[in-house]
Every structure is written in C-alpha cells, then in structure tokens.
Specification:
776 residues, seven-stranded mixed beta sheet, 6 helices, globular, binds copper (II) ion
Length: 776
C-alpha cells in the first residue's frame, strides 16, 4: 500500500482522493488494453508511435485517459537530481493502482522453501535424448499457424542439424535427467522442499499448495501465472560438477496466443544463468520453442578451462562431491567453480513478461569446494553453512541451513490477479514484495549460521539489504561465485536485477522467540535507475513513498539447533576468510567498447529477428558497439551508433580461446545491470578505480550505475556458438537493449558466421545473418 499521496507521488495509496483513483483506474484499464494488444501480437510499439500514443521520447503521450500522472509529466526530465540527492520519489508512469491486501497483515504466512526437482535416470526420458534435435514430426495445432490444418512440425523445438547439436555430447553423456514443464498455474500436490517441516516454518509438504501470494489472497487464475511445472513455490535444481544433466523442458502452455491473462508470450527459451556450455543450451533469445514441443538442454557442468587447464583432473579442488562423502575430480580450473545460478525464460522481447509471470527457478551447483555438507572436513571443503548427515544425498546438497530466496516485486489487480504494465518502457515496478512467490512471509530459523542464496528476480527493481537491527552479515558470494575474500557488512551493495548475493547470517546471537527482519533499503520511483539507499530506520519508519521499502521477510528464532553447527565462521573475526581466489587472466587479445544508450536506431527490418522501436530519438534502448578499440582512450560513444536489438545481427566475434577486455559504458543517468552470457568476467576497474571487495570476485552481471564505466575481462573458450549481452532490467532488454555475439572458432566445428535460427511451429529454418558489424 502506498503511503504518499502528493502530486508528485507515483504510489497512490488507497486513501488518495476518489477522482484521482478513478482517473488512475481508467488510465490503467486503457493501458491494460494496449498491454494486452502487444502481448497478443496485435499491436506493435511502432503502431503506438504511429497512433501518437507514444512520444518520440518513448513516453506515453500525456493525453489523459492513458496516463494517470499527466500533471507531473513536465517534471520528467528534471527528476534525476532528486534521485541523486536522496530526494523524494519522483513520478513515473508505471500506471497501476495499489495492490489490495484483502485485510491481511505482513509476516502472517510461512515462507515456503523451494520445490526441489526430481533427478531421474536418463533412461526415464522417452524418446531418448539425441545429440541433434529430434525432428520427429507431429501435427501442429492450427491455432499456431493461422488456422492452417494438416501441418506437421518437430517434437523438439531446438534448431536442427549439426550447428545446434549438443557439443561434446559423447564426451559428457547425461548422467541425470530432469523433466520440467512450463504451464498454467495450478495447485501443487507434489511439493518436495528437501527438508523436514521444522526447517520449513512448519509447512507440511503433504498439504496441497494453492497458487496464492498469501493463503488469504485469491488464487491466481491459470493464465495469469506460468511457472516451471505450473506450481508454487519456485523450483530448485541441484547439480554437481562432472555430472551432466539433461533438462528436458516441455512447453505445455495454451496454443491460444490470446489466453495469457493480458501479458506473457507462449513461446519459450530457457537460459541457465550463467552456465558454461554450448550455445545450443544457452536459451538463445531467438531459439524459442512452441506449445506442445520440448527442448533438450544439455548442461555438462564442467569447470571453465577444462580443455586447457588441469586436463587430467589431478587437483582435488577441481571436483565434485561423490555419494560416499569423497571427491570425484574433474578437469578444469578450480578457480572457476560456481555455486548459485538461476534459470529463466529469455524469449525475444517477452522476457520481462514471462519472467514476471513467475517462469523462473534456481540452480545450486555443488563442488568439492562448496559441498553442501558442512561436516566434511577434508581440507578442501570450505564448509559453508548447510547442515549434514541428511538422507536426501549424504555428503552433498544438504539444504537444511542453505536457503534459496527469490526476491521479486509484484502487483495485482483489484481481484488479486497478477498484473503488470508492459508499456512502462522505462521499467516496471511492482508495489508488493514477494519472497519465493509469497507476500512478505516469515521464516523460522534455529539459533545458528544460515546461508541465504538471494536472487533478484525482479523486472526493473534494485534492492539493498540489511537486517532490522543493523547487525552483521557476511557476504560469501557474488552472482554465481564464492568470493576471493568474504566481506563483513551491515548492509549490502545494491543488488541489481539478476544479481545474486549469498549471505551468511548468524542467528546464534538471538534467543528463542526473538525476531529480526530482512529489510529493503533501496527506494525506487523509476524503472530507469534506483533512487536513494535509505538508512534502516528510514526504511522501517514507514515514511518512504515506495511501498517495497522496509521489512519484507521476518526471521523468527526458534532456539538452539537440534545438532551442533559445524560450519566455518565466514566472518574471520571481522577480517574475512579466503574462499576462491580469482583465476589468472591471460594476455588481453582485444579490446572492445559497448555503450548502453537510449537513443538507439534500427538499421534492419527483419520482422522476426528485429525489434522495431520508434528509432526517433531518446526512448529506444540500444547498444553501440565499437570493435576497433585500440589501447588509446575510448571516445564517449565508442565510435558506433546505438542499435536496437536484432538477433540476426552479429555485433562481435571474439576469437576462440582468447581473453578480451570489454568496456561497458552507461550514461544519461540510467543504471543498467548488464549481463554477458557464457563465462564469468572480472571487473578490472569501475570508473577508473579498483572494484569494491564485494565486486572483486567473478561476476556475470555488471551494474553500470549512472554514467558509470566498467572495464571487465573475460575468456572465450571450451564451447562455441551464438551468445548474448544485454541489460537485465528486462524491460530495457526487451525494448531493445540486447545484442548477439558469436564465438568465432575460425573454422570447424562452427561455421562463421553462424546462420540465424528462425523458429516456427513447423520447424526451425535458418537464414544468413542480417548484418555483421564492422570489425566484429
Ligand atoms: Cu537497462
């Protein structure tokens, strides 16, 4: 519920004057109609410009009836100073009414732990997985092909042929199969939290879980929420290095494009963020598949560098837990060990809607260093909090005190149904906080150390986290990666969209019956960038204009744990402890500059591969690529003009088995969290200075900050194909701040340039790249 009701306030409270609420409601309905039209493919953004509904700045024209904040539109351009000076929330036409709370109070429902996905024998897959896409034909639903009858298409939506075959499939044959189905939401009657009820706030997993953000809120309609396996809570995949996983992803969504509850697109492509594997498994934005199809993702779970470093697998630090409490050694660089990933939809120009519809899960990766069993004291295991002696898989993967938290802001309509405004091109902000799809829950904890794997799964919202008593936490990981040195802190850095922070909180300082809250300090009033980070007392004082500021998760302390805490104290008595030092970087082969801009144009017009923004000035997100950077200083715009997304355009072609230095430039006061697929990078400098300790490890998302410049180095090795670089504010990504780069192997096994996949229900075809940028 909004707490502010002045002229400038975006967040209307339920106490706002009636006319203003009625105007806003009418505007919301009109916007919802446009939103629906876009999601049904009946209206394009270009149409909106043509009709005069969008200004050349990409803003909704202030013609009343659409924009409830017409009165404050003139303040649009002058709003940045107030963010930076810590001023009040300025307006942004996100355009939703306050989400009703149906008389419920926060912290009255238990937070569900993730739902652990079954790990099956590969022989359970029928048909058996194949290196190349399975093109066995099946009838195509006429609704997918404009009513045509009698057509057939492949059962697997992966692009066919050698270029999209699973790389090194024979070398890394799948050892574990997981089948997962994206479908309309329903009740969960097979919940497996992987822990006993006392570790899940008393939730009895045998009790069916309805799709509700709170037990006393209305259930979500089937077409409003599309999740993995069609249920709450979110799903967790547990994997080990050296144990390749075949994830067969079924698309069981409706074949009726209009049956989406007003937002979301029924074609899917799933990105395991940020796995090191071939492009055919990376959820390429154009390699989407259709209802009634599946897509086999082959996750080999190899350490980066496995083709050149420790190739004979002799170092126990490069390894994975086996089922007997020991280590299975694997090739590769142990400094590249990863721990906390997530997976989510990456559908071209619909990622924001599909992820917002709850199509997101998490992935814990276990290694010899990060075992998921704190009791194993062999000199290799770092013994981060997890628990031990558990029956699920002893020696690894214990979830007792290792807790995934998926944070996401949401909004729902007067009927409690999930809703969004997908023509809020600056970014969409919800007004209610959820954790693991639960609105402001509580979580029971024993008085011992816990590890929380915290993911920001929002569309456009940033967070900054603290405990309500401002007490100490220890950051042990940033994105997927354990830090070189743990960081003691009382509040986190900003957590951008798609970033992950693993935090250890020691609850042994509390007594039974005490509570402490996890608090969001990050105030936002614009999807463009975060506003001021408040103090804990400001954030919990109830005065922020942003309803997502303040306490959102309440820890209730139960008392001493049933068994002693055997985890290592990661605080190192305030000095931190060493976890995983950074991998050595080879000589830089090449430099490039990418400038993230809001004045992008589109030089291509392929209706499938391009996003056609208005291209008439500020408001169209894009990326300028300069592939010709020498060692001299970069010009502020990198030499190229910003281009909107075209997945048929190859923007860069890094050489195979090289290291490159990329400069990522922000600007115009926005803040873009930039995600680069494929391999972890290291921040060399941020605005010319060394990165902070918490940013000094490996990363896969780089927040640029307003006018910021981040220089990173990353390696391109082991696998090939087409990958992406994009803003992970998914509203920016979809409109159209995304580019494709191809890993240039020079010759075999990859053609260079690679043909672009064109996905249709009747099968994927290929066409030549629309464009290869100069000097790529
Ligand atoms: Cu952005």
């Amino acid at each position: 519920m909004g707490r502010r009701d002045d002229k400038e306030g975006f967040w209307l409270s339920e106490n706002s004057d009636r006319k203003r609420l009625r105007d806003a409601e009418n505007a919301r309905k009109n916007r919802e109609e446009i939103t629906r039209g876009i999601s049904h493919g009946k209206v394009s953004r270009r149409d909106l410009v043509k009709w005069g509904l969008l200004t050349s700045a990409g803003l909704l024209a202030p013609i009343g009836g659409l924009n409830p904040f017409v009165r404050s539109m003139n303040a649009q351009t002058s709003s940045f100073s107030s963010f930076n000076s810590g001023g009040s929330c300025s307006q942004i036409p996100t355009g939703l009414n306050p989400s009703p709370l149906f008389g419920q109070s926060p912290f009255t429902q238990p937070m569900p732990r993730f739902d652990v996905l079954a790990r099956n024998a590969v022989s359970t897959l029928s048909p058996a997985p194949t290196a190349q896409a399975n093109t066995t034909q099946q009838p195509v639903d006429p609704r997918l092909v404009g009513g045509q009858t009698g057509l057939t298409g492949p059962i697997e939506g992966r692009p066919p042929g050698a270029n999209w075959a699973h790389q090194k499939f024979a070398q890394f044959p799948p050892a574990v199969a997981t089948e997962i189905t994206t479908k309309e939401v329903t009740t969960n009657s097979t919940y497996n939290p992987g822990v006993t009820s006392d570790l899940n706030s008393g939730i009895n997993p045998a009790t069916p879980i309805p799709p509700k953000f709170h037990p006393n809120f209305p259930a979500q309609n089937a077409n409003r929420v599309w999740t993995f396996n069609g249920t709450f809570p979110p799903k967790l995949l547990q994997v080990r290095y050296g144990e390749p996983v075949l994830m067969r992803h079924h698309n069981a969504l409706t074949t009726d494009i209009t049956n989406n509850g007003g937002f979301g697109r029924f074609t899917l492509t799933t990105h395991e963020h940020n796995a090191h594997h071939g492009a055919e498994n990376d959820g390429f934005t154009g390699a989407y598949f259709w209802p009634n199809q599946f897509y086999d993702y082959h996750y080999p779970w190899v350490l980066a560098g496995f083709t050149s470093i420790n190739t004979t697998a002799t170092d126990a630090r490069a390894g994975a837990p086996n089922d007997a409490g020991g280590i299975t050694k694997v090739p590769g660089d142990w400094h590249e060990t990863m721990s906390t990933h997530w997976f989510h939809d990456h559908m071209f120009t619909f990622t924001d809607q599909n992820v917002y519809k709850c199509n997101a899960g998490m992935n814990n990766i276990y290694s010899s260093l990060d075992r998921g069993d704190e009791s194993v004291n062999d000199g290799v295991n770092l013994r981060m909090p997890s628990g031990y002696s558990e029956t699920l898989h002893p020696g690894w993967g214990n979830l007792d005190y290792d807790v995934n938290l998926m944070l996401a802001d949401k909004a729902w309509d007067a009927n409690g149904q999930l809703t969004m405004d997908n023509i809020a091109f600056d970014g969409f902000l919800g007004d209610q906080m959820t954790v693991n799809f639960a609105w402001k829950p509580f979580f029971n904890v024993y008085a011992r150390r816990y590890r929380f794997r915290i993911l920001n799964a929002s569309v456009s919202r940033f967070f900054a986290l603290a405990l309500s008593d401002s007490s100490n936490m220890v950051q042990i990981a940033n994105d997927g990666n354990l830090l070189p040195l743990t960081v003691n802190l009382t509040q986190t850095d900003q957590l951008g969209i798609a970033e992950r922070y693993d935090l250890v909180i020691d609850f042994s300082r509390y007594k039974a019956g005490q509570t402490v809250d996890l608090v969001n300090l990050q105030q936002m009033s614009s999807g463009k960038l975060p506003g001021p980070v408040l103090t804990v007392s400001q954030a919990t004082g109830g005065t922020s204009c942003d309803p997502c500021v303040g306490s959102f998760l309440r820890f209730k302390v139960l008392g001493p744990p049933p068994k002693p805490d055997l985890s290592v104290d990661p605080s190192g008595a305030g000095k931190g402890i060493v976890l995983i030092p950074n991998p050595a970087l080879p000589t830089v082969a090449r430099q490039r500059t990418f400038t993230f801009d809001d004045r992008a144009s589109q030089d291509q017009n392929d209706p499938v591969t391009t996003y056609l923004g208005n291209g008439q000035g500020r408001g169209s997100w894009g990326i300028a690529t300069n592939n010709n950077s020498g060692s001299s200083s970069f010009s502020s715009f990198g030499g190229g003009s910003a281009l909107q997304a075209d997945f048929g355009r190859i923007s860069s072609q890094p050489g195979f088995a090289t290291c490159e230095e990329w400069t990522l430039q922000g600007g115009f006061g926005w803040d873009h969290p930039i995600h680069i697929h494929f391999e972890e990078g290291q921040i060399i400098s941020r605005n010319g200075s060394k990165p902070s300790p918490a940013e000094s490890g490996r990363k896969d998302v780089y927040r640029l900050r307003p006018s910021g410049t981040v220089v990173i180095r990353m390696q391109f090795r082991d696998w090939g194909g087409m990958f992406m670089e994009h803003c992970h504010n998914t509203m920016h990504e979809d409109n159209a701040m995304l580019l494709r780069w191809d890993l240039d192997t020079g010759s075999t096994p990859f053609l260079s340039p690679l043909p672009t996949p064109i996905s249709k229900p009747t099968g994927v075809t290929f066409q030549n790249p629309d464009e290869i940028l100069s000097g790529a």
